[in-house]
Design goal:
The complex is a heterodimer of chains A (about 300) and B (about 300). By secondary structure, chain A is mainly α. Chain A is built from 14 helices and no strands. The longest helix of chain A is centred in the middle third of the chain and has 35 residues. Helix content of chain B is about 70%, strand content about 0%. Classes of the chains: A mainly alpha (about 300), B mainly alpha (about 300).
């Protein structure tokens, strides 16, 4: 909605007014988006004493990285949690869950990376077929995928749990990787289909005339051109797996397979953990996905809109 | 769609069809295993009286689980709260996202920074979102109490989440904060697709900026509004994470929504049969909503 007329040069006053309005709106929006996160980060670097001050110290007087140090040292085995019964309000107290954070982060990474790879392996060929090939049942395939996209994850929890239990796969990363496909693959396919559909059919035809088989066309013609879509789909699968909570809550029981959201959720209801430590754990969970989202903003926005327009 | 012309005469399997079968095989296997099978298995379970407290007895009970759930006033209470939460959340998301989209549609320095920051709430894991807002709402040291007291709006700390009248709006606020970015991005696409002629025509007719917004922008954004409203309603109706983290259904059942009810019935009461029946009812409700979505999109495309 670019309101600047092309012929008549706008008067000075309306332009100043417009500038002020835009600036005010931008500041408001930034405050809305960033203030909660700022408070999370600020709280994570406060001391035990400072975090319980009234009114809150919005900017810490004596910022400290003690929580992060505790998490990394215990996680890597260089320090152990404080003994039971030690005074949590004394400086340097390390809660017993501190050592679980790094291993659970590793679990989250492994699960997310496996889900990304499987999404691409399953989604790319299928999306290419739906976008460029003419075959009976194409519309049916589209509708089935669309229907699977709207199944609520909570409706899958009961059957998944029973099957995973029966297979003896409770408390394993494999159960998470497989079930996360249910919440990622349908969306991945939609993003990829809408992307492949935008690529000219002539590319496809030319390669076929040159004697390429279908898989060869996909591999040598479409894949190199589809890099932005692959990045977007990979990011969505990664973020969805990294952030997933409900299924991980049901299937994991010990630190061996618990992902970061489960450990962090446990900390929020643990009364022996200080508020500043709690926020440090939150910062760890937030950092990787937020960095990815900000760095790859363009890919994500184009992927989100592609996925939405198709379904 | 291909056999229409031939009638009884069936065309043989074409090269493309064989290739498509190969390319789609992996997807078919995955979707069968992780969506079709669980949905059917869940339907089957919902006809049995399966309780993990006595896992070896699994009597067939027919539709008893469904009649039990549908005649349970506690279930209908949670349906009401789910509806209340969803309506609040969707309306707030729509209003805020429209404002954000209109702002990002302008051309000004710093717009790119804004749209990068817009993705931050979207990317934050819902657990971290829950932790963050639980700490903000904290009754002793929380930022909300601190801010309102510093500004002089309240004189003493309020127990926010403990007040059953405030619980749902506060959880909805945390939900909305995370959902506004995606909604704004989708609405921005709709805004950009409005033909510029409409605006120049309105300007020639002497319409002010406000009138152009009311009579050109808003009507043209209807498909976008519909898409976002239905998508967000689907997200809100099934939402679980914030209820688990912030209130666990409390205080006194004030945030006992359907998703929370399913969790309690299944994993605390271990009553998998009624849990499955409840999640089936939720899935069908969502499916009906998404059918409306598909229909409205089909009209648009």
């Amino acid at each position: 909605m670019n309101t600047a007329p092309l012929i008549v040069r706008p008067l000075l006053w309306p332009r100043i007014l417009r500038f002020c309005l835009l600036a005010a709106a931008s500041v408001l929006l930034l405050a809305y988006l960033l203030a909660p996160v700022f408070w999370l980060v600020s709280s994570s670097v406060q001391t035990e004493r400072e975090i319980v001050s009234i009114p809150p110290h919005w900017i810490p007087d004596q910022p400290t990285l003690q929580n992060f140090k505790a998490i990394f040292l215990t996680g890597l085995g260089y320090a152990s949690p404080s003994a039971n019964g030690a005074d949590p309000t004394s400086g340097g107290f390390i809660p017993s869950v501190a050592g679980n954070l790094l291993p659970s982060m590793a679990n989250s990474f492994i699960v997310a990376l496996c889900v990304v790879v499987l999404n691409l392996l399953v989604g790319v060929p299928a999306a290419y077929a739906i976008a460029k090939l003419r075959f009976r049942g194409r519309n049916l395939a589209l509708y089935v995928i669309l229907a699977t996209r709207v199944i609520p994850d909570i409706a899958l929890v009961v059957p998944f749990f029973l099957v995973v239990r029966k297979l003896g796969m409770l408390d394993s990363l494999a159960s998470l990787i497989v079930t996360y496909l249910a919440i990622t693959v349908p969306f991945s396919v939609f993003v990829l289909v809408s992307f492949f559909e935008q690529m000219p059919d002539d590319l496809d035809r030319a390669a076929r005339v040159d004697g390429c088989s279908r898989p060869q066309v996909l591999l040598h013609v479409f894949l190199p051109l589809a890099r932005p879509a692959l990045v977007a789909v990979g990011l969505f699968a990664f973020l969805a797996s990294w952030n997933e909570f409900l299924l991980a809550l049901m299937f994991t029981q010990t630190a061996a397979s618990q992902t970061l959201p489960i450990i962090v959720a446990g900390i929020t209801s643990d009364f022996t953990v200080s508020f500043s430590f709690l926020n440090a754990a939150g910062v760890l969970a937030v950092l990787p996905p937020v960095l990815l989202a900000v760095i790859f903003e363009r890919y994500i926005v184009s992927g989100l809109t592609a996925g939405a327009v198709k379904g | 769609m291909s056999s229409q012309r031939g009638g009884a005469v069936r065309r043989g399997v074409t090269y493309d069809e064989r290739a498509a079968a190969g390319l789609l095989a992996a997807l078919a296997v995955v979707l069968m295993a992780v969506t079709a099978f669980p949905i059917l298995y869940s339907l089957w379970i919902s006809f049995y009286g399966l309780n993990l407290r006595r896992p070896n007895r699994m009597p067939f009970v027919g539709l008893d689980n469904y009649t039990h759930v549908l005649s349970d006033p506690q279930f209908w209470g949670s349906v009401g709260r789910t509806a209340e939460f969803s309506v609040m959340a969707v309306v707030a998301v729509l209003v805020l996202a429209t404002l954000v989209a209109v702002l990002l549609d302008q051309d000004f320095p710093g717009r790119r920074i804004l749209s990068a920051c817009l993705l931050i709430p979207w990317a934050i894991p819902s657990v971290a979102n829950g932790l963050m807002w639980k700490w903000i709402y904290d009754s002793n040291y929380g930022a909300l109490n601190g801010l309102l007291m510093q500004l002089g709006f309240i004189s003493q700390a309020t127990i926010w989440l403990g007040d059953s009248a405030k619980t749902l709006p506060l959880i909805a606020n945390a939900f909305v904060w995370k959902e506004v970015p995606l909604a704004a991005i989708l609405l921005l696409v709709t805004l950009k697709s409005i033909p510029a002629d409409l605006y120049s025509a309105a300007r020639v007719d002497g319409a002010t900026a406000l009138k152009r917004f009311l009579h050109v922008t808003l009507p043209a954004m209807r498909p976008g509004f519909l898409l976002v409203a239905l998508y967000e309603a689907m997200m809100a109706v099934r939402h679980f994470d914030l209820f688990f983290l912030l209130t666990e259904g409390g205080p006194g059942g004030a945030s006992d929504v359907v998703a929370w009810r399913i969790y309690v019935e299944t994993f605390r009461n271990l009553s998998f049969g009624t849990g499955a029946a409840m999640s089936y009812i939720l899935a069908i409700a969502t499916l009906l909503m998404s059918y409306a979505l598909i229909r409205s999109l089909a009209q648009k495309l």
